Amino acid sequence: MTGFFTNYGFLIVSMLFGAMLALSLYLPLMAGQLSLASPGFYALGGYIAAILSTQVFPATGAIYPLHLLLLEMGIAGIISGGLGLLVGVLVLRLRGIYLAIATIAFVEILRVLSLNLEMQDPVRLLFFDFKISTGGAVGIFGIPQPFTTPIEYLWIAVPMLAISMALIYRLEKIRAGRALIAIREDELAADAMGINTTAYKVMAFTLGAVLAGMVGAVSAHFLNTWNARQGTFEASIDYLASVLIGGSRIYLGPVLGGMVFRALPEVLRITADIRLIVFGLLIVLGTLFFPQGLVTPGLLQRLQWRRK
Questions:
Q1: By CB neighbour count within 10 A (0-12 exposed, 13-18 middle, 19+ buried), where does 233 fall?
Q2: Given pLDDT bands bounded at 50, 70 and 90, which one contains residue 121?
Q3: What is the mean pLDDT of the chain?
Q4: pTM
Q5: What pLDDT, on the 0 to 100 scale, is given for residue 124?
Q6: Does residue 227 sit in helix, strand or coil?
């Protein structure tokens, strides 16, 4: 068992991160909003953690202090949430494909900024002087590690995923969650019922941005390096596909889809050179045979009925 976790620790933790990123995309989808901005907030959170840990809070020992990692995650969540609120107010009056295009443009703007952001003079923030540099196309290397092995990141990833799932489960049960679902089913009817559709859509978008930013912060340490490839149009499509394959009607769907999408390319290594072809075929077959995703509310109801 120890050997299993040693060999597959990196993949297991990556699967949990994939599940949380899929949840960050699921939150706007709860309100029927096709947003592809999560990779942008994910990349932003990673850059915040990378800059803070290498320039503001440089490690003095072999192990990076865990409380500084938690502080970086909090800062990344706040900044990503603030930017998500601003972007949400600007773009969430759009619908459907127009909203998707606007969020893709946002991701591209962040990617270009990360490729070119290089300040010559240091910036003073409170008691710290540091230079804001994203490292251009090469990125930022040598991000300090709070753990000695990849599997130890489960101490962070498991609580994060459990808390995210619990909060979204609770959100679906309260008035705000029911308002989001009403907007998803029929926005005009929800508006006619007195629901502030714009406010609820911005709320869901902002929550997704906070989650993606925090995952990005811990991922930067996990990967040990960070660059502009973390937030791209291709990543947006991957996250969307994981939600659609897993199921977009209940929070368990994105969790399963995100984990499967991270694991499948590694599982398919046995197919060697045709791995990507098999991967694409499985996505197509999954879409054809499970058009509503692998996990649906109907499936869960049938499972509960059988238990009775």
A1: middle
A2: low
A3: 85
A4: 0.88
A5: 61
A6: coil
The residue ranking higher by pLDDT, 78 or 263, is 78
Question: How many of the other CB atoms lie within 10 Å of CB of 285?
Answer: 10
E-strand stretches of the chain = 123-125, 128-130
Q: Which DSSP category does 244 fall into?
A: H
Only one residue has tokens 């597959």, namely 8
> Among residues 267, 251, 192, which one has the least CA distance to residue 12?
267
Rounded CA separation 48/14 (Å): 20
**Residue 141 pairs with which residues in a beta bridge?**
none
pLDDT of residue 14 exceeding 90, the answer is yes
> Would the pLDDT of 68 be above 60?
yes
Amino acid at 285: L
Tokens of 19: 């599940």
Can you give the length of the chain in residues?
308
Q: What amino acid occupies position 306?
A: R
Residue 226 pairs in a beta bridge with 140
Residue with tokens 């990378």: 50
CA distance 96 to 247: 18
Question: Which residue do the tokens 């068992």 mark?
Answer: 1
Q: Which residues contact 192 (CB under 8 A, 6 or more apart)?
A: none
Q: At what angle do helices 38-51 and 197-223 cross, to 10 degrees?
A: 50
Rounded CA-CA distance 79/294 in Å is: 34
Token representation of residue 128: 């710290």
Q: pLDDT grade, residue 135 (50/70/90)?
A: confident
- Cβ-contact 257, 246 below 8 angstroms: yes
Q: How far apart are CA 74 and CA 66, in angstroms?
A: 13
Contact 45, 215 (CB under 8 A): yes
d(CA 301, CA 299): 5
CB 306 within 8 Å of CB 264: no
**Residue 119 pLDDT level (bands cut at 50, 70, 90):** low
Tokens of 250: 């209940």
Asked whether 54 and 143 are in contact (CB, 8 A), the reply is yes
Distance CA 196, CA 183 (A): 9
